Amino acid sequence: MTRRGVRKYVDDLLAGRRPASFPADDFDAAQIRTAIELRAAEPGADEPRPEFVDGLKSRIAQQFSPGELEGAAPTHQRLSATRRQVIVGSAAAATAAVAAVSIEHLVTGRGVPAGTEQAGAELVPNEGAWLAVAKSADLAEGSVLPFELPTVTGFVRRAAGGNVEAVSGVCTHQGCKLWFDDSADSLRCPCHVTSFSPAGEVLTHQLPIAPKPLPHFEVRERAGNIEVLAPRPPARPA
Predict the structure, then answer these.
(1) Torsion sign over Cα 19, 23, 27, 30
(2) What is the chain's alpha carbon radius of gyration, rounded to the nearest angstrom?
(3) pTM of the model
(4) I need a labelling partner for 182 at 20 to 30 A (CA). Which of 14, 51, 121, 155 fits?
């Protein structure tokens, strides 16, 4: 946790200054989100800044001729006012939308571009073998267990309804080994503050581009064991 970064971010936010970004973990993000809500609750927080209004007026003035703004008839003035209101309203709505997305991306890294796939591809080796990774009796519904084989590492979980699923234990960003955070029910990457759900979807990240979801293994239960289809270890030279 970067306490100095959180303190400066919150101080700048409450003072009306533009905060600088910094690497934040989930606890930092929760504190910043609370500060944003408090700032938004202050009287006048919903009013635009004077410099924004001045800039907007200047841009609007460039879209009208002097006659439209000064010497038009009353009816035309009313029509122009309506037109200006539309422009102002549209600009304000667009600005608010951009600000909301920017804050969400800055604080939590959840700004995943539209169309990003949310289900990982299935990892099917060219030459694989079914290998036991856990006992069926040890995997209760909703629980997650890690496994490590000679060629792959991953996690198995028993989803609602009793189905067993298995995902890779390697981050799709740069290959760091994930660990399971039981308190947050997530798979965490120690390298770049990225986290995945036990089903493999990306939950949080602070990367310029969202990482891919975790690949899935083929998995089955047989004779009291949970098995995954994993690549065979390479043959050792004689």
Answers:
(1) positive
(2) 27
(3) 0.50
(4) 121
Tokens for 197?
Answer: 């759900």
Dihedral in degrees, nearest 10, Cα atoms 184, 189, 195, 198: -70
Q: Is the pLDDT of residue 98 over 60?
A: no
182-212 residue pLDDT tens: 999 999 999 988 999 999 999 999 898 999 9
If 0-12 CB within 10 Å is exposed, 13-18 middle and 19+ buried, where does residue 176 land? middle
- Maximum separation of any 2 CA atoms in the chain, in Å: 97
**Structure-token match 């037109």, residue found:** 83
Helices 74-108 and 26-41, axial angle in degrees (round to 10)? 150
pLDDT one-digit tens code per residue, 30-84: 667 776 766 666 666 666 767 777 877 777 777 766 665 555 545 444 444 455 5
Query: In terms of residues, how long is the chain?
Result: 238
Report the alpha-carbon distance of residue 166 to residue 160 in Å, rounded. Answer: 14
199/165 Cα distance (integer angstroms) = 7
Q: How far apart are CA 180 and CA 169, in angstroms?
A: 9
d(CA 63, CA 81): 13
